[in-house]
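Project standup — Tuesday

K.O.: blocked on the structure for the chain from last sprint. Re-posting the sequence here as requested.
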Amino acid sequence: MSSPWHSPLLSRFDWLDHAFLPAGARPPAEAFYNQQRHSARVVESAAALPVKSVEADGLIASDSRPVAVYTADCLPILLVDEQQRQVAAVHGGLKGILGGVLINAIRQLSERGSAPEHLFIVIGPSIGPCCYELGRDLIARAEQDDPHQLSPLMAWSGQQPVNPAAVRPQAQATTDGVWFDLPLLAKRIALREGVPEGQIELAGICTYCMAEEQASYRRNTHCQHGYQQRFSWIRLRD
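H.V.: unblocked you, prediction finished:
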């Protein structure tokens, strides 16, 4: 993956533009994005100036300027309300997802007039369960400290899944841990919030073993190949 990825689900809407960019590519010059802290905070873009001055991990567009998130292995999530024509972007690392960032984005869109049944959600390239190893102690802590009752939605395996689409070696186990499916957790959260399954799309592109060379922070820690931020953005057309 060395060119932008465009969601088939979102490409049906001729009143918006979006892209999941490869590592190192810059978003549109006029794009809003936050200082991301793996938080659950979601703000409107009108309150997000100057760019990268506000600490938050979700952005709801106040106008037609693009809203963007930057990721390496975390989830870039784009949200669209087809009825109200609202768009949003969410940065979803494990901490933020467990803390409720996607829940907050969906609910704040609802407060602005959206309804979950009219939302379309795309979870872009991110580390997949084929390469995302977590310690069992971390899973235990997440189950114990679970303010949003997400434990039943978590998916992991004690055995590393084989990714037949990998273009480079998958991550090697470094602990006696589990292989965690973060994109599936986000999908299940959206389903629980009332978004129809047919309106949720997973890119299915693992940043560690399938995407471009410098797409993965975790791969860099294992192989020292370097990494660059990957921007994903969405906007309403004027």
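K.O.: great, moving the ticket to review. The chain is about 20% helix and 20% strand. The two ends are 29 Å apart (CA to CA).
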